[in-house]
Amino acid sequence: DTAVSQTPKYLVTQMGNDKSIKCEQNLGHDTMYWYKQDSKKFLKIMFSYNNKELIINETVPNRFSPKSPDKAHLNLHINSLELGDSAVYFCASSPSLTRGEFFGPGTRLTVL
Amino acid sequence: DAKTTQPPSMDCAEGRAANLPCNHSTISGNEYVYWYRQIHSQGPQYIIHGLKNNETNEMASLIITEDRKSSTLILPHATLRDTAVYYCIVRVRGGSQGNLIFGKGTKLSVKP
């Protein structure tokens, strides 16, 4: 009965590769997000989708491209991976933009 | 930097109420108080949020002082599964939910 799930949980890859992280929520929420954990206590919002429509697109390199095939899914594709992309990425969902988020377990990306 | 201060740790007996305090003396008029918790190696979990009125949901109650400079999260009947680090943050609601900046939080240990 996982609410927000992400795959893979760990991702180790070489610089320059292209990779995707998948996210699914079964809560029936309208809004989904991607956050990057820059440090242990700082989650920086990257994107937000509301009913499959991009609402928030913070200053993120255009190598990062979110894709929302339907309301329950928000995938993150990253092209030409760089060392600085190494981080934990969290997917989240909420009933609306003004409600608190339910987070997935995170994906630890390591770029070598 | 986080705009909130919380005690580093608290203990609570199973079945009793857990009252977690938070100071946010520099809160702005348009900022809400949000509470999250994080169990080791999992993503943050939203608990509750409020502006100035007390709030209650199925997980907890939130008591905000009249001057809004502090608040208390109440878990009415703590269980062992409530053992986690609890974070109080202030943030603007609506539009861009913005970044999540966690302070050190309060490590709550629920004991049998």
Structure in words:
The complex is a heterodimer of chains A (112) and B (112). Chain A has 112 residues and is mostly beta strands. Helix content of chain A is 0%, strand content 59%. Chain A has no helices and eleven strands. Chain A has strands at 4-7, 10-13, 19-25, 31-39, 42-50, 53-57, 64-70, 73-78, 87-94, 102-103, 107-111. In chain A, the strands form two sheets. In chain A, strands 2, 4, 5, 6, 9, 10 and 11 form a seven-stranded mixed sheet that branches. The mean pLDDT of chain A is 90. The mean pLDDT of chain B is 90. Chain B contains no helices and ten strands. In chain B, the strands form two sheets. A five-stranded mixed sheet of chain B has the order 1-10-8-3-4, with no helix packed on it. A four-stranded antiparallel sheet of chain B has the order 2-7-6-5, with no helix packed on it. Helices cover 0% and strands 48% of the residues of chain B. Chain B is mainly β and 112 residues long. Chain B starts with 8 loop residues before the first strand and ends with a strand. At the A-B interface, strand 5, strand 9 and strand 10 of A face strand 4 and strand 9 of B.
Helical run tally of chain B: 0
**Biggest beta sheet summary of chain B:** 5 strands, mixed
Question: What is the alpha-carbon Rg of chain A in Å?
Answer: 13 Å
Instruction: State the order of secondary-structure elements of chain A, H for helix, E for strand.
Output: EEEEEEEEEEE
Which structural class is indicated by helix and strand composition of chain A?
mainly beta
Structural descriptors:
heterodimer; A: 112 residues; mainly beta; four-stranded antiparallel β-sheet; globular; B: 112 residues; five-stranded mixed β-sheet
Short summary:
The complex is a heterodimer of chains A (112) and B (112). Chain A is an all-beta fold. Helix content of chain A is 0%, strand content 59%.
